[in-house]
Design brief:
Order of helices and strands: HEHEEEEEEHHEEEEE
Distance between the termini: 19 Å
Largest sheet: 12 strands, mixed
Radius of gyration: 18 Å
Number of domains: 1
Number of helices: 4
Strand order of the largest sheet: 1-8-9-10-11-12-2-3-4-5-6-7
Helix content: 10-25%
């Protein structure tokens, strides 16, 4: 069970960090493609930016949202050899002290997990246990400011797809091709809500499709350390 939790947690943390630990840093070959669209004038300060039809602006919105997440409700679905869903809250206000409260569902089983103070806790049959063999420090080290620059260096192509929504919130869809040092180029399908409160991205790697949905970006979350 620890092995399963560790694998799921690693995937979750890497997705949260926009997979930056696996990205290469070769900016050569960057291309951009935008669907024809009438450009709008710049919005007033502090208003969400309209990136419709603009692949470059859409990519910057994705980078900013993905690499500057503080608090968010998150759902991650992995489909492949074993379908897995993780859902819960993330507090990355302090990048060196990541906090998560997640429920993992896989193969008919449901496990509650908490990341707190660099440690992982799991609720097994109603009893909280510290997963003493797990240390999240290395996995969380890349979350933060480095994410943005690494994403920009790794992008190979940017494309605007069209209008889309996230759970009913209207937005726009893009495709971004990133050079992943371990598996080659990976295409990210990204949807950004117009109000910038929701973000969704999906990618396929090693036979597994991963879909990550952020909602309630920047809204308060409450995550407590389990009592053991």
């Amino acid at each position: 069970m620890k092995r399963i939790i560790g694998a799921a947690l690693a995937a979750l943390l890497l997705a949260t960090a926009a997979c930056t630990p696996q990205l290469s840093a070769d900016p050569a070959g960057d291309t951009s493609e935008s669907a024809p669209a009438e450009q709008t004038s710049a919005p007033a300060e502090q208003e969400p930016q309209d990136t419709a039809g603009d692949a470059e602006a859409g990519f910057e919105e994705y980078v900013n949202l993905a690499s500057n997440v503080t608090t968010v409700h998150m759902v991650m679905k992995m489909t492949g050899s074993a379908d897995t869903t993780l859902e819960g809250d993330l507090d990355a206000t302090d990048k060196s002290d990541l906090k998560m409260h997640m429920t993992m569902s896989m193969s008919g089983q449901s496990i509650e997990m908490v990341v707190w103070g660099g440690k992982v806790y799991a609720n097994m049959a109603g009893t909280w246990q510290e997963m003493t063999s797990m240390d999240v420090d290395d996995l969380t080290a890349e979350i933060g400011a480095k994410s943005a620059d690494t994403l920009r260096d790794a992008v190979k192509a940017k494309k605007y797809i069209g209008e889309a929504d996230i759970d009913g919130s209207p937005g726009h869809k893009y495709e971004f091709t990133l050079d992943m040092s371990t598996v080659g180029e990976v295409v990210y399908t990204v949807v950004i809500a117009n109000d910038k409160k929701s973000l969704q991205f999906e990618f396929e790697s090693n036979g597994t499709t991963t879909e990550v949905t952020y909602t309630k970006i920047g809204e308060p979350v409450s995550i407590d350390k389990p009592k053991i």
